[in-house]
# Entry
Amino acid sequence: MSMQTVIGMLREEVSAKLATHPPTAELIVQDPKLLFGKPTVFGTRLSVELLLEGLAGGRTPEQLMRSYPTLYPEGLEAAIAFAEGLPAMHPLAGLLAQYRALCR
# Structure
């Protein structure tokens, strides 16, 4: 199966999930069998931490999506929304703050 086929199937699955569960928070999953239970974007092996580190390091959302073909815009938005809901002292909230500072 080609990567394009896999990505197409993922996008269809994400669209169906968003149609039945509109909040993007549904796109962040925690599975103890995947990346030791770190929060990840649904359908990918990309952790919220990895994505926020990229953004805080100066990478743009477009650069991240080019680097990670399975990443989709709603998934990145969900990662950011997930971090917004964390206490300010949480390390992921700190990465989000760094990213927001870069955007100013």
In short: The radius of gyration is 14 Å. The chain has one domain: 3-103. The mean pLDDT is 88.
